[in-house]
Amino acid sequence: MIATSAGTARATDSSAVRRFVRPAWIGLALAIIVGARWAATVAEAPPYLVGALFGIAFLALARAGGMRAAMPAPSALMIGLAGAAVLVVLAIGASQLAGQPLRAVPKADFAAWALVTILVASAEELVLRGALFNALREASGLTVAVAVTSVAFALMHVPLYGWHVVPLDLGVGVFLAGLRLASGSVAAPAIAHVAADLATWWL
């Protein structure tokens, strides 16, 4: 009986360790990819090329983390579009408070910018609100999953936009996690993220 109890305890400890392996390696890979993007941006590499490679790397990470492509349910589509409307209102309010325009993308660059934006925004959601969220929720619970992915979302944008965007991006991260939970699918935050980013070009 004592030997059996000890064996059960070791098995339980081993299972607990394995649960943390997946979020750990996904988080490490995410940090490496974001760091590489920051280094390429500092080196003034072509921005659309950097964005495209970043998006592709994130898609590969999402795939390795267990995410698979699927058609979004109509409910996820509606929740995502409603979420996009909220994000656009927030973006307009934030830009007015800062006294700065939302974007300055030349019209001639719209097609390239839109393609890269769709790729990057979708890939970010597949990793953050998809693979990493699922791994963290399984390992540590829902609160940790929401908190860590929201903080990661805020911090990964610091090299591009500066530290002043952290409070806003942290709130956006929590909001996108809410869309994930409300819809039961990563499609809703992905749709909201993509649609909101694209909408800012016309504002």
Beta-strand segment tally: 0
Mean pLDDT: 87
Major sheet characteristics: none
Task: Tell me the helix content.
Answer: over 70%
| Low-pLDDT runs | none
Structural class: mainly alpha
Distance between the termini: 70 Å
> Strand portion, in percent?
under 5%
Indicate the overall shape: globular
- Order of helical and strand elements: HHHHHHHH
Count structural domains: 1
Question: What is the gyration radius calculated from CA atoms?
Answer: 19 Å
- How many alpha or pi helices? 8
Q: Please, could you describe this protein's structure?
A:
With 203 residues, the protein is mostly helical. The protein has one domain (2-202). The chain is built from eight helices and no strands. The chain has helices at 2-42, 47-64, 74-98, 110-140, 142-156, 158-161, 166-183, 187-199. Helix 3 (74-98) packs antiparallel against helix 7 (166-183) and helix 5 packs across helix 7 (166-183). The radius of gyration is 19 Å and the shape is globular.
Short description:
By secondary structure, this protein is mainly alpha-helical. It has helices at 2-42, 47-64, 74-98, 110-140, 142-156, 158-161, 166-183, 187-199. The protein has eight helices and no strands.
Ordered list of secondary-structure elements with their pairings:
Elements: H1 2-42, H2 47-64, H3 74-98, H4 110-140, H5 142-156, H6 158-161, H7 166-183, H8 187-199
